[in-house]
Amino acid sequence: MTGALRVMVVDDHPMWRDAVARDLEDAGHEVVAATGEGRQALRVAAAVRPDMVVLDLRLPDLPGVEVARGLAAADPPPRVLVLSASGEHEDVLEAVKAGASGYLVKSAGREEFLDAVRRTAEGEPVFTPGLAGLVLGEYRRLATQRPVDDGPRLTDRETEVLRLVAKGLSYRQIAERLVLSHRTVQNHVQNTLNKLHLHNRVQLVRYAIERGLDQA
């Protein structure tokens, strides 16, 4: 998913919400809704069906994690980029487990935020520097606690791409490593998501780590 996006902004601070919406619109995206309440966000998202939701975790009526979980249950689910003042590890892990595709702290600059929006739209897991390792480490810990089934049959190339995804490489890095186009890598990832009935690359990383592909 590239180009202009249909984005909903969920944040209970009006000035911050307006600033985020303005940055998105200045970058060419369409802000289809903006709200400061979690329950309203779920109702509105079901009506306007945004491509992406920029979500704060601290909301007055419903925790942002619950909003992310509700959004992840939609068909199709929007990408969810958490933009929060909190960099606490527990908040990051809970958001990712609830279905967030990325997590950025509010100290990020405008360009870093817009780059995170673009990369999240392309299916990449995007985290404030230092948090990606935390998420991967948690997935590895969880992988030791559950049995692993064989799962659907992937092609050799899909498995090769999945192995590099599990190691935390971006699409561009994978394309360079395998001498493929950026689009071809995206297609392999999307095919794998479809086969495994997963919704985003964060879930794909978890699947791969559970099968030890990050150690291969």
TrEMBL record:
Superkingdom in the source lineage: Bacteria
Chain positions with 4-aspartylphosphate modification: D56
SMART domains the UniProt entry points to: HTH_LUXR (SM00421), REC (SM00448)
Residue stretches in coiled coil: none
Domain HTH luxR-type per the UniProt entry, residue ranges: 147-212
Domain Response regulatory as annotated: residue spans: 6-121
Protein name: Response regulator transcription factor
